[in-house]
Write a structure and sequence with these properties.
A hairpin with a 7-residue loop joins strand 7 and strand 8. By secondary structure, the chain is of the alpha+beta class. Strands 5-6-4-8-7 form a 5-stranded mixed sheet. The chain has a 3-stranded antiparallel sheet with strand order 1-3-2. The chain has 6 helices and 8 strands; from the N terminus they run H-E-H-H-E-E-H-E-H-E-E-H-E-E. Helix content is about 30%, strand content about 30%.
Length: about 220
């Protein structure tokens, strides 16, 4: 008889396989990958500059959250970056989109955070400390043949112990006006930049202002 048959009761919890534990994503550490970059501007050079700057800020924000680091200015972030690898990018006349990997220098990050006193000194931080603020500011103009020359110029400026920051005031495909934060007088900065293959000097005529560029190009 049907009444005498006891059907087995299977609950949903019994029927489903046990949940698989998933580990939280591992922190990216000093190499922050998959950073989105997007910007629009009046020209392609400025759009790319703004997009990469925004990506650098995003990468630092992620790194700071992972490691409990303090906020940093754009110039400080630039000085702590070893390299930027393009995963993908697209540039139009007025816009830039991409995805980047931003690699930070561990020793510079630790120096910025005031940590690791027992670590061996980084030779690139010799001389004037990398994060001493500017004592004065100097507006300069520069000319370059294209994006790669501009990026190299900016990289060398930021690598100098005499320059605390490089702010872009205006920029186009072949020239820019910059505001340099100087830790020492301009004449001393000009001498310090020579070994880096850079030229910094007043213009040839009164009222021309100061100019900076790769050696042989002013």
């Amino acid at each position: 008889m049907l009444a005498g048959l006891a059907a087995p009761v299977v609950t949903l919890a019994q029927a489903l396989p046990p949940p698989v534990a998933t580990a939280a994503p591992a922190p990216s550490g000093y190499s922050q990958t998959g950073i989105a970059a997007e910007a629009t501007a009046e020209n392609a050079v400025l759009a790319r500059e703004n997009g990469r700057a925004a990506a650098s800020r995003s990468a630092w924000a992620r790194l700071a959250a992972e490691m409990g680091l303090p906020p940093a200015t754009d110039s400080q972030i630039e000085q702590m970056i070893d390299s930027v690898i393009v995963e993908q990018e697209r540039t139009t006349r007025t816009s830039y989109t991409g995805r980047l990997t931003v690699n930070f220098n561990p020793r510079r990050v630790q120096a910025f955070a005031g940590r690791g006193p027992s670590s061996p000194p980084d030779p690139t931080l010799a001389g004037t400390p990398a994060y001493v603020p500017a004592a004065s500011y100097l507006e300069v103009t520069t000319q370059y043949s294209g994006m790669q020359e501009w990026l190299e110029l900016r990289r060398r400026l930021l690598a100098s112990a005499s320059v605390s920051q490089v702010d872009v005031l205006t920029i186009s495909v072949d020239r820019a006006r910059l505001r340099l934060g100087l830790r020492v007088p301009a004449a001393q900065v000009a001498q310090d930049l020579v070994p880096a293959g850079l030229s910094l000097a007043p213009g040839g005529r009164p009222g021309d202002g100061w100019r900076v560029g790769l050696a042989g190009r002013r």
